[in-house]
Structure formats: C-alpha cells, structure tokens
Amino acid sequence: MLDRLRSIVQKVNAAKDLQSALDIIVSRVRDALDTQVCSVFLFDADINSHVLMASEGLRKEAIGHVSLQTGEGLVGLVAKHAEPLNLQDAALHPSFHYLQDTGEEDFHSFLGVPIIHHRSVLGVLVVQHEERRRFDESEEAFLITLSAQLAGVIAHAEATGAIEGISPSGQKTSDTIFTGISGSSGVAIGQAVIVFPHADLRQIPQRRAKNIEKEIAFFNSCLQSVRDDMRELHASLEGHVAEEERQLFDVYVRMLDDNALGNEVVERIKTGSWAQGALAYVANEHIRNFESMSDSYLRERAIDIKDLCSRVLFYLQEKETIETEYHENTILVSEELTPAMLAEAPKDKLKGLISIKGSGNSHVAILARTMGIPTVMGVVDLPSKQLDGKEVILDGYKGEVIGNPSDQLRKQYQDTIEEQDLLNRGLENIKDLPCETPDSHRVHLWVNTGLMTDVIHSLDQGAEGIGLFRTEVPFLLSERFPSEQEQFEIYHEQLEAFAPKLVTMRTLDVGGDKSLPYFPIEEANPFLGWRGIRVTLDHPEIFTAQIRAMLRASVGLENLQIMLPMISNIHEVTAAKQLIKKAYRELIQEGVKVKYPPVGVMIELPAAVYQIRTLAKMVDFVSVGSNDLTQYLLAVDRNNPRVANLYSAFHPAVLAALQQVVTAAKEEKKPVSICGEMAGDPGAAILLMAMGYDVLSMNASTLLKVKSVIRSVTMDAAQDLLDQVMELDDAQMIRSAVDLALFNAGVDRLLRSSRTN
C-alpha cells in the first residue's frame, strides 16, 4: 500500500495542471482501493459550494456542473466537520442528498475524507461502491494519508489558477489572499516584476515572447552550441574511457534533436512563450516524469535532463542580455530575494518586495526595513512564476499578498496608502517634542539599528539613543569575518553619529535563522542549538576581537553599552564579563585610553526570566528581546507560515513574563528596556509604559507613531488598562481591549502599525 501511495503522489506531483492532477487522483485511487467510484469535490469560495471536479465512475458530463453548498449532503458534512465519514449505506444517512445526473444511485457504501491545507478545507475526496459495506480501517487510513499528502499540491494548483483570476469551477475570481510573514510594514500596490538567479530551471518565470520567429532562431542557435559542446566532450575522452561510455554524449545530442526535447521547446515557443520559459517548462515536465518512475535506472535519467537543459539555459542567458523591465510601481518578486536583486532595482520605482522563501531576519528584510519598503517574506503558497506583470497588493502589516484585486479592494488600499502618507506628514510636527504623557510621565524612545542608513533615519525621527545595534548585520553582509579594524570603523561611525546619546551594542548574535554564509551552522534544531552567546564563548577569539573593536571605537565618546544575547545561565554572564575585562586590560596596557562600559543582558529565554533577579545583580542594565522571548515561551517560530498565526506578544504568559522582568529589575535598581517589535506597536507600548519599562527601542519607522500615542494617553489610564488586560486569559481579547483603549483615546488612526498580533 505504501508503494501505491508513493506512486500516486509522484504522478500527481508530475501533473501539468490542476485538472490533470485530479484526474490522476481519481483514476489511481479507484484502482488502489478496488472500488467503483472515486471523486474529488473542491470548495469554490466564489459560489460557496463544493464542485465535482473529477470522477472515475460517475457520469463525465456531471463534472464541473454538479455542486453542493456548504453543509449540504454528505460531502458538505465531511467538509463542515473536517473529518472522515464512512457509511455502509449512504442513502440511509439523514444528510444524504441525491445528486441528479451523476449516476450515483447504484452506489451504497460511501467514504469521504476532507482535503485540508493549513487548517482550511479545500475539498473532499470520496470513494463509493455498489456493495453495502463499510470500508475497512486500512482503506480509510490510506485515503486520509493520501488526502494529507495531496493537499499541498492541490492548494498550489488552485493558487496558480487564482492568479489567473479563475476559481476551480472556472468562475472568475478576485481578491485572492496569500499569507506570509511581515518583513517590513507598509502597504503597496503595483505590478509584479520577477527576478531570478541565472541557470536555475526551477525559477524561470513564464513570459510572452516579443518575436516568436526570432525567439525560435535564438533557441536553435543555443541548442547547436550545446550539441557542439557534447561532441567536443565525446572527442576529448578518446583514449581515456571506453567508446561505450563515450556514446553517452551521442545520446545527449540525440535528446536535443528536432524530434525530442528541442522540438517540444520550439512548439511551446510557438504558443507565445519566451525561449527560457519554454525550456524550463519542458525540462521540469520531463524531470518530474522521470523522478516519478518506479525503475531506479530511469529515475536517475532526471539528472541527465536537468544537466542538459541547464547547459542550454546557460547559453540562452549568456548570449542574450535580458534587461529587467521595472514598472513605475514595481513589486519585486523572487523565489529567494537577495540584497543584490534589491540593489539593482531603481529605488524611485520600487514600491514593495515579495520573497517566497526567507524570514523577517533575512538580509533583504533587514535592508527593506532600513529603506522603508513594504515587504512580505515566506509566501510559500504563492505561484510566483505566473505573477510576472500582474497587479498585486502587498500588505506588509499583515504579511499578505493579494492577487487579482477588485476595484473596491484596490480603492480601500489606495485610501490606506494616502492615509498613511498624510499621517506620517502630520507626525513630523512632534519629532522634536518629548515623549511624555499628558500627566507628565516620561518615556525614552530609542531605536534598533544595523546599518548606517538606520542611524541617519533614526536621528531624523528624533531617537534618543540606540537600544540595539545588531552587530551581526555587518557580519552577514561580509564575505568573511570582519577584522578588528574593520569592526572598529563600523562601530565608531555608529557611536560618533549618536554621541552623546547612548548606543547599546549587542555582541555577535548568529545561529537560529541568522546564518553567516562563511560560517554555516547546520543543526537539526538550530533555535535550540548553537546560537548567540554560546557561539562567541566557544570562539573567544571572535568575541575578544569584537569587544576590543567596540572599546576602541568608544574612546573620546564614552557612549557605549555592551549587551549579551541569548543568556540562559549565570555562568555565561561570568565568562563573558571576564573576556570583556581581559580585552579592557589589554587595551589599557597598549596605551589606549578606554573607559569600561556598562554591560547588560538580553532577556530572551524563559530561563533568564526565572533567574532575572540574580542576573540583574550581575549587570548594569537589563533589556528584553520580546521577539525571541515570545517565540520560546509559546514554542512558535514566527517565521514559519504554518504556525506564525499562533505567535502573539499579547499572550497572557508573555505579558506575565514581561511584568516579572521589569518588577525584579526595578527592585535591584537597574534600568530596564525592551527592544523587540513589541516596543514599536502603539498599543503594546502603552502596556509596557504602565509596567514600568524605562526605554522602548524600536525600528525608526514606528517611533513617531508610538510617541503620538504616549503623548495622548495618561499614565493613570495606561495602568488601568494594564490591570484590566492582566485579568484576561486570551491574546485576542487582550488585543481587542487595547485597540478599544486607543480608539477611546482618539488615536485609532495609529492602529495599523507594526503589529505584534
């Protein structure tokens, strides 16, 4: 049964489109279970019904025409409850609804299982049989397992159709939402421009050819170049390998003949495709077909196809300089956006970024936040290759991409963009005013930085200090470990620009989802592995060089604070402080007039929360990293689209931990700050102020919004709100209570912000 299951999944994965995939499913499943009927119903949101999309055993003319509304019939019941239904005689069930024109009156036994993707029911897979019997447990388990494995394939195929504006039943559709992760807040409306790395068959987008005849001639010339290469390789091996092995290259040449791969590509070009897209399409089809074969020898031929077509693609790309056409409102899209792709795009035309892979800590996301470009990362279900040239809406607040936007939705988002522009211009008026509540409680607003451009923007927004300088950013953007002198120059620039304001420099924090290309850390569970302070303590040479660079950079400025990340026990603090003192003594001995800086810890782990009192006694200041603390408390990776919706800094457990930290730090008379995204959420900022946090550190883009809210809400009102929400036991209820408080304070215009959920 396992072999059959694997075979069906492979065949479906190799299908060219949704209908082909569904036809394979119903045919193969019927044979595998030796039953008489197998059907697939898919949910069509536009008509709120489950439509019969494929069947083996029911009348073919019913396909695409017969449907059941939500909750109607046995299919609707399976979808409603999202659980299997196994009946000996379907007609006796009270929910049975006879589907006219299907020919199902002859079938009695019924087994239906839901097709579920990311908690949403996409449809129902049904098998039926004339005989009155219950399908046994193994048959039911087979169907459940199959539907779970096929859900992703069907979802992707549906998404591809949705991009073209077509629902599963063929109805026109609009406002299709694809969910990812917010990389940088803001809203953008524009045309998708696909960018992709060279010589990667998987990432070539589908585009129209401008001149079909010219495109065919160009492809044939590149094909001939590869044929010539193969003949040269054949000749070069003479005398080294047997003629039988050398004949492999002759096989390669024949595969490129007019009657083989080459002809298929030409035929696709004739339909209007550009050469690269046609080649990629044909190659990927053949690769999938070979990979799905049961014979191991034939499966290996997929490698030959990939190699051969990659060579052709190389010539296509080498001989033709493809000028990327950037629209006036460009939304840059890629399977995996890189800083180089971002750098190549004209900044005056760039309105937003979408990356299928990646997280909020990706290099591109860091740069996007610095540049203030709305960005969505990790949109894994988005069929990017079909997106080129199409209009999309990007919501960087929610982490959503919307395809085929309706006029109504487009108008709503356009109003949002104009509203945000107007709001931002209005906030400029308070830039130089103190962050003080109406009843005179002072809160200090600092910023998180990683690049020099962050500093310039931060000073422009009226930042009072740097609560987190991410020293890993220069490391991430380098091709090797930066030298002490190189680090000195970077750190001095930051410290000097902000002097005399304090600058908090976090020691190198890599691991987890932050991997250095020249120092890869590959672990089964990187978030619970070698990261943060653990890495640098294991490499004292890296840590000491960084500390020396920081101390040297602060000479004459004396505005440096050093912060230790990912602390889980007191021994890490002790070891790190010893190394800092050692570096300090070395510099003193070298005649450098350094001043010993304040040293603090970042509270990011539950262990640190429970040891906060001891830790506070050992250091000069305490700072909470709310992003990681929330992730570790809730066991949720916010960069994983499957569980990102469970991430909420308003979870009662998170608020309780934050309260515990600030209470203990205050009792030890140590200043306490917070430097996660929570600090930049206007609603969360009110709660943090009420808890007693001295400093809120955030991205510069949210600073004025937070200041505006704090200047509008009294400390008494904030404490009343805190008392109220600490009695609630649900994150959504807490979020709603905070939103209501902002509304009552007249600052609801700021609700659309860098939400912490």
In oligomeric terms, what are we looking at?
single chain
Main beta-sheet annotation: 8 strands, mixed
Described by the principal axes of the CA atoms, the overall outline is globular
Report the portion of residues in β strands.
15-25%
CATH superfamily of the largest domain: Phosphoenolpyruvate-binding domains
Helix content: 40-55%
Q: What are the segments in which pLDDT stays under 50 over at least 5 consecutive residues? A: none
Rg result: 30 Å
CATH topology of the largest domain: TIM Barrel
CATH architecture of the largest domain: Alpha-Beta Barrel
**Count of helical regions:** 27
> First CA to last CA: what distance?
44 Å
Number of strands: 22
Can you give a write-up of this model?
It is built from 27 helices and 22 strands. It has 757 residues and is an alpha/beta fold. It folds into four domains: 2-163, GAF domain (Beta-Lactamase, 2-Layer Sandwich), CATH 3.30.450; 176-195 and 325-423, Glucose Oxidase, domain 1 (3-Layer(bba) Sandwich); 201-319, Orthogonal Bundle (Enzyme I, Chain A, domain 2); 431-750, Phosphoenolpyruvate-binding domains (TIM Barrel, Alpha-Beta Barrel), CATH 3.20.20. It has an eight-stranded mixed sheet with strand order 7-14-13-9-10-11-12-8. Strands 15-16-17-18-19-20-21-22 form an eight-stranded parallel barrel, surrounded by seven helices. Strands 3-2-1-6-5-4 form a six-stranded antiparallel sheet. It starts with a helix and ends in a 13-residue tail after the last helix. 45% of the residues are buried. The model has no long low-confidence stretch (mean pLDDT 85).
